[in-house]
């Protein structure tokens, strides 16, 4: 690879922040969609809340798997733009949309018969039945949700991240309004409970897709890509490429998500109070993680552009700057978690609850332990972003699976139960898995990234 043109480290930092901060905001807003559903159904009823939390978890697991195709669009479009190949931009994005539609159709039977699946997994019959009612409607939203992921990736690769942020924020407000009307029967709407929550989700996802599609199609500077030109025509070569890069991304996300799902299940074996504290501590950690994820997405675009331009120096310099920025934020979170853990946990609790003091005490320990994996969690997600920018997804998938499932989950179990460390042992196991992933993925990047000269 050649090394020209060269840009300075401060220029890399400015470009990453310009691109990444709106993506951070978008990820945080996306989390608020889940929080809104949880809060409103908590007001409505315990059975309904439990059912939708269960149903939403199943939806999310399947979404993570299918989202790999949409996420593959980001590095592919970035590289095509780096090469100046605008036709390939359209081809890759269009087939990302096709694969998203196909996955959404194929997975819908899981939602239709989800009650039997949840019963087989040991859930209470009334909870499983109500979750199925929710998922039979909410499952229709899988297609627009995956299409939104593809369009967000396309627009991010084009460095149009402001629109991604504001459309996501608008979606949060819209979802809250439709939830308020349809769950409780306000403003003259029928009271539909969990069905209302499902309809609100599907409606919000569909409107979000339409808004992003109209932006991508009508904004003058994007019209030259003709994104929806002859959309009905298959492009088998581009589809094969998007599939090749996308399915390992989906499985990598599933492996990481599985690590935290397994930790929640094992924490439930320890006790209800411990599980509540675990959930709060993970929620706080996830909020911090959104910053690293947004910077990782920006790094994917920057690395992809550098790859397309055959600019090895820019690729490596940009990766170093992105990693340092992410680690810098990680240090800030470490200080916060070590100095104010009890105050942070208490924000999520009602002081009048007699169990609150115990949850705060246990959660304080977990949040202090989460400070241990802030840096390695930042490192592993940044390394994944770099590798995706290079369209290197299959080997990272295996490295992630090894780190999380072969090392992380067994380490959590052994530390928590045979060694008797309980909940703190579970979190130490998470740290072990994330540390191995960070080391292996960063090693993979620095040994395979093109060198200048």
TrEMBL record:
Domain of life, per lineage:
Bacteria
A GO CC term assigned to this protein in UniProt? plasma membrane
Protein's UniProt keywords contain Acyltransferase: no
Q: Which InterPro entries match?
A: MATE_fam (IPR002528), MATE_MdtK (IPR050222), MdtK-like (IPR048279)
Q: What are the transmembrane regions?
A: 12-29, 49-74, 95-113, 133-151, 163-184, 196-216, 249-270, 276-300, 321-349, 355-376, 397-419, 425-446
Give GO terms for biological process. Answer: monoatomic ion transport
What is the protein's major site of localization?
A: membrane
The answer to whether UniProt assigns keyword Phosphoprotein to this entry is no
Q: How does it sit in the membrane?
A: Multi-pass membrane protein
UniProt entry keywords in alphabetical sequence: Antiport, Cell membrane, Ion transport, Membrane, Transmembrane, Transmembrane helix, Transport
The molecular function terms of the Gene Ontology recorded here are: antiporter activity; xenobiotic transmembrane transporter activity
Q: Please state where this protein is localized.
A: Cell inner membrane
Which Pfam families does the record cross-reference, listed alphabetically? MatE
User: What PANTHER family does the annotation carry?
Assistant: FMN_FAD EXPORTER YEEO-RELATED (PTHR43298:SF2), MULTIDRUG RESISTANCE PROTEIN NORM-RELATED (PTHR43298)
Could you tell me what this protein is called?
A: Multidrug-efflux transporter
Q: Which organism is it from?
A: Pseudorhodobacter turbinis
């Amino acid at each position: 690879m050649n090394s020209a043109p060269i840009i300075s480290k401060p220029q890399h930092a400015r470009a990453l922040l310009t691109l990444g901060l709106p993506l951070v905001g978008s990820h945080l807003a996306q989390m608020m969609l889940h929080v809104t559903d949880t809060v409103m159904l908590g007001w409505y009823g315990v059975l309904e809340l439990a059912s939708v939390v269960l149903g939403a978890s199943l939806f999310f697991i399947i979404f993570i798997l299918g989202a790999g195709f949409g996420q593959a669009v980001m590095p592919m479009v970035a590289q095509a733009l780096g090469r100046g190949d605008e036709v390939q931009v359209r081809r890759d994005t269009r087939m990302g949309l096709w694969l998203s539609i196909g996955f959404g159709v194929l997975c819908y039977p899981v939602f239709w018969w989800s009650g039997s699946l949840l019963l087989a997994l040991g859930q209470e019959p009334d909870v499983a039945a109500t979750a199925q009612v929710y998922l039979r409607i909410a499952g229709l939203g899988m297609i627009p949700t995956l299409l939104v992921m593809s369009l967000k990736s396309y627009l991010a690769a084009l460095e149009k991240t402001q629109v991604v942020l504001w459309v996501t924020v608008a979606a949060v407000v819209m979802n809250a309004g439709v939830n308020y009307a349809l769950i409780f029967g306000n403003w003259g709407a029928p009271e539909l409970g969990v069905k209302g929550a499902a309809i609100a989700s599907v409606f919000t996802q569909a409107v979000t897709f339409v808004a992003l599609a109209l932006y991508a199609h009508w904004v003058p500077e994007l019209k030259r890509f003709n994104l929806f030109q002859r959309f009905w025509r298959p492009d088998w070569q581009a589809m094969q490429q998007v599939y090749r890069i996308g399915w390992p991304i989906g499985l990598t996300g599933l492996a990481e998500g599985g690590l935290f799902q397994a930790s929640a299940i094992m924490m439930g074996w320890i006790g209800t109070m411990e599980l509540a504290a675990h959930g709060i501590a993970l929620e706080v950690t996830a909020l911090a993680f959104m910053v690293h994820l947004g910077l990782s997405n920006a790094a994917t675009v920057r690395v992809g552009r550098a790859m397309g331009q055959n600019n090895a120096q820019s690729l490596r310099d940009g990766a170093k700057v992105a990693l340092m920025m992410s680690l810098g934020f990680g240090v800030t979170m470490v200080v916060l978690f070590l100095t104010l853990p009890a105050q942070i946990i208490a924000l999520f609790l009602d002081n009048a609850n007699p169990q609150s003091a115990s949850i705060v005490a246990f959660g304080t320990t977990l949040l202090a332990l989460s400070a241990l994996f802030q840096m390695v969690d930042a490192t592993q997600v940044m390394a994944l972003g770099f590798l995706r920018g290079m369209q290197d997804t299959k080997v990272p998938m295996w490295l992630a699976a090894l780190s999380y499932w072969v090392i992380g989950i067994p380490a959590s179990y052994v530390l928590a139960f045979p060694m008797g460390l309980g909940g703190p042992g579970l979190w130490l196991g998470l740290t072990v898995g994330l540390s191995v992933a960070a080391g292996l993925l960063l090693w993979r990047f620095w040994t395979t990234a093109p060198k200048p000269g």
